[in-house]
Amino acid sequence: MDKQKGPTGFIVVLPGEVIEIPQDSDKSWLTLFYSLPRELAEKWKPAYDLPRCPYEVLRTDKYDHIVCDDMFKLLVWDCYAWSAWQFFQVKDRKGNYRDIPGNWTQYAGYFPLWRLSYSIIPYIRMKFEQNRLGFQNLYNIPQGVEVPWLTYQQFSNLIGNVTDMVIAEQNWQPMIDTILENCTVEDYETTSSTVKTDFMRKWHHNRSGKPISLDEMMESEDGDIFDVADPRGEFENSVISEMQIASFSESTITEKDREIRFVS
Fold first, then answer.
1. The model scores a pTM over 0.90
2. Which long-range contacts (CB under 8 A, 24 or more apart) does 170-173 make?
3. pLDDT tens for residues 64-120?
4. What total of structural domains would you count in the chain?
5. SS3 call for 65
6. Paired strand residues for 226
7. Residue 98: CA atoms inside 13 Å, Cβ hemisphere, count?
8. What integer pLDDT is reported at residue 188 of this predicted model?
9. Nearest Cα to 154, choosing from 34, 30, 36?
10. Which of 22, 80, 110, 229 is in the most buried spot, having the most CB atoms within 10 Å?
């Protein structure tokens, strides 16, 4: 007898039907898109012009030329990766936790923390599903009703809290600490920057110079592997209201002042 397989996508229950949205489908990123603030969504105008009522976007192919465009996925991924990066915490010289030094554009694309900022996106999407920000809520929105734009600060609070949750639940902080402790000059962009200059001073005095990969970071001292998704494998292979966003954020808000500074 064939072994039964459970759903591999997001399940939506509607009157008279059950819908499954595959996790690797183009429309699977719509929950993340509809939570973006204007300031980020407008970075790609076709996406910014999508109707704020998701009724037809979800149920027809009328807007597939936008949603199925690679630029749509890149917009969502880049916005969430950059936003999550703002809330990664690393140790300073005194052992206190702080934001990553400098700007993420000063780091190379294969820097392990840069890659991790993309790997965390599927986890963020799943958190949305678990906290009334998922596809069930989008499908429950009646025709003609629009999803309100989140303010920049609401989005900042939301992603800051969700990023903290994922890092804690997946126990990624030790891995993040190890990544920063094993930085190499190749982890920085070739252009000169203050953060790179500071690193080079420490490099010549305190570092062994031995590079370490993200795969090595994912392996603990006991040989266990941290559950970090490969962004390439992940990416290619009910109304959402401001009240719901506020309720979710306030229930988990930390005392840290979370303010995202977007880089043009």
1. no
2. 170/123, 170/226, 170/227, 170/228, 171/226, 172/116, 172/226, 172/228, 173/89
3. 999 999 999 999 999 999 999 999 998 888 889 988 887 767 777 678 888 999 999
4. 1
5. helix
6. none
7. 10
8. 62
9. 36
10. 80
